[in-house]
Structure formats: C-alpha cells, structure tokens
C-alpha cells in the first residue's frame, strides 16, 4: 500500500473484532515504527504492548473504577474554544448538539474496553525526560507522536485498524500494576489495535478536513 493511500484510509476504529492479532504482526509494525525521527536521536518513546489476559485485567480494573476520578499523567485540554469545538460537534448527529451525562458515561465505559480491540499499545516516556527543572519537555511528545503515526499507518497497510485513546490511560496505576511498569515511566497514551468489524454499525461519522487554503499558507513560491 502506498503511503498516501494509508494516510487516506487510516481512521479511528470504534468497532473491533475479537480476533487476536499475531505477535509477529505486531512486532513487525513496532520494528518499523521506531524509525520515526526524534530530536538529536533521543528516541524518547518506549512501549508496553498488552493483549489476552493482561489487557482484560486492565479493562476490568478500569470498568470497576468507573468514571469517578480519572488521573491521566498527561492532562487533557482544559478548554475547546472555536473553531475546535465546532469540529467536534461536526461528528455528532445533526439533531443533537451535545451528549447527555448518561450518554457520556456509557461512551467512556465502552472506551475503557478499547472498543473490543484485542491489543493495546501503551506509550511510555521517561519521567526524568518529560518533567524537567524548567518545566514540561514537550519535544518528547512531538517525537513520540511521529512514532505513533507510524504505528497507525503501518497497521492500516497491514489490514488492521487503530484508535489513539487518552481514555485508555486515565488510571495509570492499574496499567502499571498489571504490566509491571516502573514508576519512573510516564504512561502517556494507549493505541488500540485490531481488525475492524465492518459489519457493526459505525459509532461515529467519518471526520472530514478543513480546505487546505483555510489551514495552510504558502510563502516565497513562484
């Protein structure tokens, strides 16, 4: 598959089949993905990949705790001003501007099951690199995002689906306990991976993108 095709076909999957993904397929994706660029070759990313009993134990722990007190180690945005909220609302049905609290809770709990995906790839970053004396080292997130995009595009090319989930790491203590992740690692993001269930009703409309001339300006060209 051409890179341009993978970019166009990649989208966030919220209906996965339970079919397991072979370890060799996941290893191949990861071995290629880590060739992402990073500042001064720092390679700030590490990953813990969970499936089977380990992932089920994490999911059960999240569901048991519910939506009462999430504590992500990377904080979510505090506000969504325009035009960003407008883009969020564009994914919701036209006859409903906002979800009710009950709908939001149900959505979160389904999120905690990784939408049925049989694999979750957890992004880890060394806390001593992310938290520094002068403040947060955002560059570690820039570099890690490049690696995550590689994972998602390689998965698409391999016939798999993915979704990057902040909700997959809102209880890092549970993940840390099950996967024996040391305290000096920040658990930043979860990337759920598996085979898309194309027969299930879609949970959301496919997103669109703003026209290029609205978001990109060109300078100095002839």
Task: Provide a concise account of the structure shown.
The chain is α+β, with helices and mostly antiparallel strands. Helix content is 38%, strand content 15%.
Describe the structure.
This protein is an alpha+beta fold and 222 residues long. The protein has a single domain, classed as NADH Oxidase. It is 38% helix and 15% strand. The protein contains 9 helices and 6 strands; from the N terminus they run ααβαααβαββαβαβα. It has helices spanning 3-9, 23-33, 52-65, 84-89, 101-112, 127-130, 139-157, 172-179, 212-215; strands at residues 45-51, 119-126, 131-132, 135-136, 161-165, 185-194. Strands 1-2-6-5 form a 4-stranded antiparallel beta sheet, sandwiched between helices. Strands 3-4 form a two-stranded antiparallel ribbon. Strand 3 and strand 4 form a beta hairpin. Helix 1 crosses helix 7 and helix 2 (23-33) crosses helix 7 (139-157). The relative contact order is 0.25. The mean pLDDT is 92.
CATH topology: NADH Oxidase
- Computed structural class: alpha+beta
Order of helices and strands: HHEHHHEHEEHEHEH
* CATH superfamily descriptor: NADH Oxidase
List the helices and strands and how they pair.
Blueprint: H1 3-9, H2 23-33, E1 45-51, H3 52-65, H4 84-89, H5 101-112, E2 119-126, H6 127-130, E3 131-132, E4 135-136, H7 139-157, E5 161-165, H8 172-179, E6 185-194, H9 212-215
Antiparallel strand pairs: 1-2, 2-6, 3-4, 5-6
Helix pairs in contact: 1-7, 2-7, 3-8
